Amino acid sequence: MNDRKIRILEAIIQDYIQTGSPVGSRTLSKKYDLQLSSATIRNEMSDLEELGLITQPHTSAGRIPSDKGYRLYVDTLMDRSDLAPDLDLIIVKMLQDKINNIDLLLEETARLVAMMTNYATIASTQTLTEITIKRVQLIYVDLKSVACVIVTEANVIKHHIIFPPTEVDVNLCLMLSEVLNEHLAGMTLKELQKTDVRQLVPDHETLVLQIVCAIISILQEEDSSQVFTRGTTNILDFYDFNDLQKARELLELLEQKPYLTKLLSKTSGNSVNISIGEENALEPMKECSLVTTTYKLGDCTLGTIGIIGPKRMNYAQVVTLLEHISYHITNMLSE
Amino acid sequence: MNDRKIRILEAIIQDYIQTGSPVGSRTLSKKYDLQLSSATIRNEMSDLEELGLITQPHTSAGRIPSDKGYRLYVDTLMDRSDLAPDLDLIIVKMLQDKINNIDLLLEETARLVAMMTNYATIASTQTLTEITIKRVQLIYVDLKSVACVIVTEANVIKHHIIFPPTEVDVNLCLMLSEVLNEHLAGMTLKELQKTDVRQLVPDHETLVLQIVCAIISILQEEDSSQVFTRGTTNILDFYDFNDLQKARELLELLEQKPYLTKLLSKTSGNSVNISIGEENALEPMKECSLVTTTYKLGDCTLGTIGIIGPKRMNYAQVVTLLEHISYHITNMLSE
DNA sequence: AGTTAGCACTCGCCTTTAATGAGTGCTAAC
DNA sequence: GTTAGCACTCATTAAAGGCGAGTGCTAACT
Predict the structure, then answer these.
(1) Going by fewer Cβ within 10 Å, which terminus of chain B is more open, N or C?
(2) Which residue segment(s) compose the domain that B13 sits in?
(3) Which pairing describes strands B273-276 and B145-152: parallel, antiparallel, or unpaired?
(4) Inter-chain contact B151–A141, Cβ cutoff 8 Å?
(5) Over the stretch A256-310, which tens digit does the pLDDT of each residue have?
């Protein structure tokens, strides 16, 4: 791997990302300032193919980058492109009035990212298992039903309606709210599960148990994590007409929350994550790349944003955009 | 329009719904028990075309039903097919444990319908403008924020977080909850808007005003109506490969809540509604049919279910299914 | 030894051409 | 009023041929 090979590989990847058709030696020698004849480039390309960085779709076609080639590119070659400064402004403007409602914020973010990139976008709130409870409140609905509302550390509000075995009244609800608040505020799900709540209110042991079960189910239910997808139809552009079937499978997958949650769950660390082609676990994603990032409140991950594009997506643009979005949201949330 | 024409029209529509390719006179005379030669049928078909009930995609092709033809069919010709009795059981089983959470119920319903029909399915909760408030509760979150939770007549719970101008405490929240409950419970949005709330708690006029505004915005916000779509990829089957573009437009439309709400808002009456081809207002829907129904609690419409299929959809099956689903949900909810 | 020009060969893609067959309208006979 | 027969239409499919981008290999050049 000499410097010349690197330059040629970079040119191939850039050209392929731009045009979408296999890149030939003649194109490279003419379009890029490599100072080499097409024959020399052909020799180098042959080597690059042996190294597994590029492949030929068929004999007598140009070369396209392999997964390994893309990986090398995003890891070492790619330089972050700058984001147009007015885009920063737009991002902040579009999102700042949604900052009080995390669901709306997510939805808007997904819309925005999809619009700016023309790729499919997913945004999700984290499951609440590691978030602490800030407040618990029971609301008397009628004789036979009580709404159980919890507010988490991140000001996310969730609720669940329960039907107690015996009739209830307003005062009971208030009293229990007070007791529960006192004992449960500040706990995470794990702590809550370890707590023995049966002694809290001796007269209403079963009711309290029922309520705490409801809270636990709110926190751990998959349903507590919202997921939004936007711009999914862009997927139809990734594939050629003949394998519409594949695009369809992917679209179907994006309709199902469990898969989406799984897809985004791998996002780790505090920067941008990239998963290319075969690196993706899910079958329909193996022709795609996934770029994800998270946004946080303090140390606590609140949600994830992901972009699904073709393997030949504009990584530089996408990474830059996600970095900025994540930065702005994290910033706004911490105020 | 003699009886023979009706029989021929019916045969054409049935055959086209089944096969999807234009129906010719010879096919009709052989496949259906009309006791007529193809030549006679040709003459009748020519008449049916003049009446605007069928059309030819091009000279020398068979006939396909026009929108007007389908309309006649669903209005007078179509006989309800029976639903397999075990399907009734499945419907009840799948839905009954979601009955306490209207959002989950909807999501599951959409999934179920999409699975059973292989058409795209939409389900939405109604906007809450005409529903009465059953209970209001303020939850003290921290010094600077208060969660405002309302429970509606249908046990739907909604919330909104507000940031009062001055600091608050637990007792203030409880006191205000009590007062608001006393005065607002039983009101609909319209009544609420007419009410002058400024005198309720003289010491906290602005706060109360802010809270009531929050309630109003919860009730009237478009966002308060959840919409779920399932099986949207089935749309790709409706169109041929060449006008993939149209399918795409429709898919895009189904990603945008305002359009979906608009689409379903036309559903009226208490039975099943059918809208065929050009009868649909939205451009990308003009190649489709939409079948909708509602489910209710008492007199109050709680939500809508809609199925989007090709104009040649199996109306009998879809109508029957929706009737049953609507019946079961309405039934379950009223318990 | 590295680089380049030249050449034969490959193969996907596009266009043209021809064949096929389902279907129609019209006419004349039953 | 119904039906058989016939000429005609036209989308669809398959085969054939030309085009062009691209490759690998060889031999010559620096």
Answers:
(1) C
(2) 3-77
(3) unpaired
(4) yes
(5) 888 998 888 877 766 899 999 999 999 999 999 999 999 887 777 888 999 999 9
Determine the Cα–Cα distance for residues B110 and B118; give it in Å rounded to an integer: 11
3-state secondary structure of B239: coil
Quote the pLDDT of residue B130.
Answer: 73
Task: Determine the distance in angstroms separating the CA of A252 from the nearest CA of chain B, rounded to an integer.
Answer: 6
* Cβ neighbour number for residue A94 with a 10 Å cutoff: 15
**What CA–CA distance (Å, rounded) separates A97 from B150?**
22
A38: tokens are: 């097409």
Same domain, B212 and B143: yes
- In angstroms, the Cα distances linking B331 to B3, B306, B324, B328 are 40, 19, 10, 5
Distance B285 CA to D9 C1' (A): 32
Question: d(Cα B94, Cα B107) in Å, to the nearest integer?
Answer: 11
Please check the confidence at residue B220 and state whether its pLDDT lies above 80: no
Closest to B200 measured CA to CA, from B188, B192, B209: B209
CATH code, A192 = 3.30.390.60
pLDDT band at B66 (very low <50, low <70, confident <90, very high): very high
> Which residue in A134, A147, A244 is closest to B157 by CB distance?
A147
CB contact under 8 A, B149 and A155: no
Domain boundary at A223, A250, A267, which?
A: A223
